[in-house]
């Protein structure tokens, strides 16, 4: 992802347009030169390689773009973990403080005296004292991308960087692939994003992803989660998204515009190789393994989306077949307060009779959730992950109806 100082954009009325890198001969050559530079730098120090890459930046017509491509390359590089010099640094500073009481004639004499105290030559001490700084890390491996792949990653990272200034995102997914839709909706939950999920009259999936500024303690963290969702969304073949974003401070001061609308879609050609859609969170994987061991009569099946009459969709975390009955399980964490209240209303109306809801203990204590009639019938409480006994009891109440 690109930092705000590397974001390239232009304003068109009330819209902000990302300046994507087209695969022109010049851009491809710039990416190829940077990739070759870092691949050829294995064994060298990061700071030296960054300095040596400056001529490549200067040859580019858009130096900010070259710096952005280089950031993505270095983010993907592997550097050797430097040996910690904290102990040596502490010993040297303590020796220096003791020796300064009786100052040496010159600074060189003082450094020599400190080096003697830690049993090192002065030159070796100077080299090792701050050897754990990032610019001194040694490159072990560089990414094997093609130039075209580097440009595609840049375009996606640029749009992600702009989304850091968003607090909400409106998404439409036109792909009819039910599996893709289910994976996208699961990705939303795993990234702790709050969404209103609906199907419109044309069967398009519409998401309104938003939340209060304090949903993750800091509003900027919510923007980060929205940005991290973009690679997942870009795996769809037909989609569009829009957000009202806060412009970087420098751009806002230059233009006098603080906020603008960002429109993204598949038509921009954003490409993603996101592996997150196939990801199963450790807590759910561990939960499934634990339950399978303790409840051999249960069979865990792929969770299906549950439509409501309003067009909203329920996205279960688990779906269980027990004694021929199918029961869906939806988990609500402390940041799902508004969604939980809406779901309790649905259950009270009898709209999802085969749904069990698990509520994190801290959330269950708020607003008398634990005494709500719908929760008494459909719910259970958990701390970090659901335990088999509580889940078994709740599923049993629903499965036997």
Give an overview in words.
Residues 212-217 have low confidence and may be disordered. The protein is globular and about 90 Å long. The chain is 43% helix and 19% strand. α1 (25-39) runs parallel beside α4 (63-76), α1 (25-39) crosses α8 and α8 (147-163) packs antiparallel against α10. The longest helix has 17 residues, at 147-163. The chain has a seven-stranded mixed beta sheet with strand order 1-2-9-8-5-7-6. The chain has helices spanning 25-39, 46-52, 54-59, 63-76, 86-99, 107-117, 122-128, 147-163, 178-190, 219-233, 249-255, 282-294, 337-348, 361-364, 373-378, 388-399; strands at residues 9-12, 15-18, 78-79, 139-141, 168-173, 195-199, 205-210, 239-246, 259-265, 299-301, 306-307, 313-314, 318-322, 325-332, 355-360, 379-382. The chain is α+β, with helices and mostly antiparallel strands and 401 residues long. It is built from 16 helices and 16 strands. Among the domains are: 85-130; 165-278, Alpha-Beta Plaits (2-Layer Sandwich); 282-400, Eco RI Endonuclease, subunit A (ECO RI Endonuclease, Chain A).
Q: Could you give a short description of this structure?
A:
This protein is of the alpha+beta class and 401 residues long. The protein has 16 helices and 16 strands. Among the domains are: 85-130; 165-278, Alpha-Beta Plaits (2-Layer Sandwich); 282-400, Eco RI Endonuclease, subunit A (ECO RI Endonuclease, Chain A).
How are the SSEs ordered, and which strands pair?
Blueprint: E1 9-12, E2 15-18, H1 25-39, H2 46-52, H3 54-59, H4 63-76, E3 78-79, H5 86-99, H6 107-117, H7 122-128, E4 139-141, H8 147-163, E5 168-173, H9 178-190, E6 195-199, E7 205-210, H10 219-233, E8 239-246, H11 249-255, E9 259-265, H12 282-294, E10 299-301, E11 306-307, E12 313-314, E13 318-322, E14 325-332, H13 337-348, E15 355-360, H14 361-364, H15 373-378, E16 379-382, H16 388-399
Parallel strand pairs: 2-9, 14-15, 15-16
Antiparallel strand pairs: 1-2, 3-4, 5-7, 5-8, 6-7, 8-9, 10-13, 11-12, 13-14
Helix pairs in contact: 1-4, 1-8, 4-8, 5-6, 8-10
């Amino acid at each position: 992802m690109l930092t705000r100082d590397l974001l390239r954009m232009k304003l068109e009325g009330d819209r902000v347009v990302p300046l994507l890198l087209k695969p022109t001969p010049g851009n491809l050559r710039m990416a190829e030169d940077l990739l070759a530079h870092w691949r050829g730098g294995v064994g060298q120090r990061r700071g030296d390689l960054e300095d040596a890459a400056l001529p490549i930046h200067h040859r580019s017509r858009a130096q900010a773009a070259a710096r952005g491509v280089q950031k993505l390359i270095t983010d993907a590089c592997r550097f050797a973990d430097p040996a910690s010099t904290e102990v040596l640094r502490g010993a040297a500073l303590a020796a220096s403080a003791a020796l300064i009481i009786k100052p040496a004639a010159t600074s060189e004499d003082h450094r020599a005296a400190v080096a003697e105290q830690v049993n090192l030559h002065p030159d070796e001490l100077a080299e090792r004292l701050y050897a754990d700084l990032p610019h001194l890390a040694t490159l072990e491996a560089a990414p094997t991308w093609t130039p075209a792949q580097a440009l595609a990653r840049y375009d996606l990272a640029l749009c992600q960087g702009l989304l850091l200034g968003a607090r909400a995102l409106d998404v439409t997914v036109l792909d009819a692939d039910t599996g893709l839709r289910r994976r996208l909706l699961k990705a939303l939950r795993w990234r702790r994003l709050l969404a209103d999920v609906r199907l419109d009259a044309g069967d398009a999936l519409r998401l309104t992803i938003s939340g209060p500024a304090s949903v993750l303690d800091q509003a900027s963290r919510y923007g980060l989660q929205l940005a991290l969702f973009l690679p997942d969304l870009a795996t769809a073949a037909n989609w569009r998204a829009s957000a009202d974003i806060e412009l970087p401070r420098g751009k806002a001061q230059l233009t006098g515009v603080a906020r603008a609308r960002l429109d993204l879609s598949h038509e921009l050609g954003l490409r993603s190789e996101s592996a997150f859609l196939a990801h199963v969170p450790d807590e759910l994987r561990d939960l499934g393994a634990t339950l399978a061991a303790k409840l051999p009569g249960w069979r865990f099946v792929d969770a299906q989306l549950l439509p409501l009459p309003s067009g909203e969709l329920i996205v279960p975390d688990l779906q269980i077949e027990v004694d021929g009955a199918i029961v869906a399980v939806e988990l609500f964490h402390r940041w799902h307060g508004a969604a939980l209240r809406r779901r309790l209303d649905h259950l009270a109306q009898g709209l999802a009779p085969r749904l069990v809801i698990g509520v994190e203990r801290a959330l269950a204590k708020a607003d008398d959730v634990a005494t709500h009639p719908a929760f008494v019938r459909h719910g259970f409480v958990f701390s970090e992950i659901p335990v088999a006994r509580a889940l078994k009891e709740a599923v049993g109440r629903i499965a036997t109806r």
